[in-house]
Every structure is written in structure tokens, then in C-alpha cells.
Design brief:
Layout (H helix, E strand, L loop, with lengths): L36 H4 L15 H4 L18 E4 L11 E2 L1 H6 L12 E4 L9 E2 L5 H9 L3 E2 L24 H16 L11
Parallel strand pairs: 1-3, 2-4, 4-5
């Protein structure tokens, strides 16, 4: 075997970080440079400099602190104009269920608030059980319809049966008689043994 026939060793061992200048990797700073934010630790993905007022974290709903109730605001109502209500049958009640039934709202809008605005004209009378703008109310009454309060179905609740906490008390006469019997039995003296003298 000759020296020029030897295989070249290309794989090198990894440089050990933070083991002094002799390790060949940055000395005590471990290749991170001297001081600064990146030398201390990793920078998070959401970091946008010192502009905290317009940062992503400030724009998100807060879970605690000054703006913690921001995410609990009511949902904005679904807007529906009068011109769309002409698809409803005459003298029918307009509410969430009827609008979903006739395809004017998606099925997911059952629990969302709906408001009717006055764009367009109503051609036949309807009974509207939803909040509406002033112009919409005028046009509904002009067409012969009217505003109706929404009917809320109440579920009949059965009253819970109360268990009687009072224990059945025995009459006072019986308890007195029993106590008298016990005392008489205990207090009755035993007959003394007679000593027989011869």
C-alpha cells in the first residue's frame, strides 16, 4: 500500500460549542457574537420590533389585561334587505327559521341575529318578527304588513320533589312510658340472701 492509494477522510467531527478559543467555534460566545438580542436567546416569530401598539399580539383578542373583554363582543347581525323578502309567501311570519326554510339564509344562521334594512320595496304584506330599521318598518306597514314580537318557546320545568328532612317523631307519652319501665327494672332491689344459723 502506498500513501497516494489511501482513501481520503472527508468526515470531520463537529465543533464543540462553548469550549474556549481552542475549539475553533467562537470561544466563550459560542458563535453568537457579542451581546444583543440574538446572543441572549431565540427571537420569536411574532416579534415585530418595539412597535407594540400595532403588533400582531396587540391586534389579537386579549385573554387578560386591559382589553380582555374585547373577544366577548356580540356578533354583528346578518343584514337582509326588503327586496329579498318578496320571495316569502303572503302573510307569512318572517323569522330565522322561515328564512332558512325558504333559502334566504344558510342553516348556520339559526342562532345568529338578523336585521332587516329598507333597501327595495315590499310587494305583499308580511309579519316580521325580526329587528328592522325605521325605513324598513315604514315600508312593511305601507305594504299592509306589521311588526310582531318573536315567540319564545318556554320549556316546562318539572318542580323537583323535596325530601322531608324532619324525622318521624314518636309521641311523647310512649317515650315517657318506656323510660319509666327501664328505670323501674333497674331500680328494683334484689332480694337479700337470708343467712341460716344452725
Amino acid at each position: 500500500m502506498k500513501l497516494n492509494e489511501l482513501k481520503k477522510t472527508t468526515a470531520r467531527s463537529k465543533k464543540r460549542v462553548g469550549r474556549g478559543y481552542g475549539s475553533g467555534k467562537g470561544g466563550h460566545t459560542s458563535g453568537r457574537g457579542a451581546k444583543g438580542q440574538k446572543a441572549r436567546g431565540k427571537v420569536p416569530l411574532y416579534f415585530e420590533g418595539t412597535a407594540m401598539r400595532k403588533s400582531l399580539i396587540r391586534r389579537m383578542p386579549m385573554l387578560r389585561g386591559k382589553l380582555k373583554f374585547k373577544s366577548f363582543k356580540k356578533h354583528q347581525p346578518i343584514i337582509l334587505n326588503l327586496k329579498h323578502l318578496n320571495l316569502m309567501p303572503k302573510n307569512s311570519i318572517v323569522d330565522n327559521a322561515s328564512l332558512i326554510k325558504h333559502g334566504l339564509l344558510p342553516k348556520e344562521a339559526d342562532k345568529h341575529p338578523v336585521k332587516i334594512l329598507g333597501d327595495g320595496e315590499l310587494k305583499h304584506p308580511l309579519k316580521v318578527a325580526l329587528p328592522a330599521s325605521k325605513s324598513a318598518v315604514k315600508k312593511i306597514t305601507k305594504a299592509g304588513g306589521k311588526m310582531v314580537k318573536p315567540v319564545i318557546k318556554k320549556v316546562a320545568k318539572t318542580a323537583p320533589v323535596k325530601k322531608s328532612t324532619t324525622k318521624s317523631k314518636k309521641p311523647a307519652d310512649q317515650s315517657i312510658k318506656k323510660s319509666v319501665k327501664k328505670t323501674t327494672k333497674k331500680s328494683a332491689p334484689k332480694p337479700a340472701a337470708v343467712s341460716k344459723k344452725k
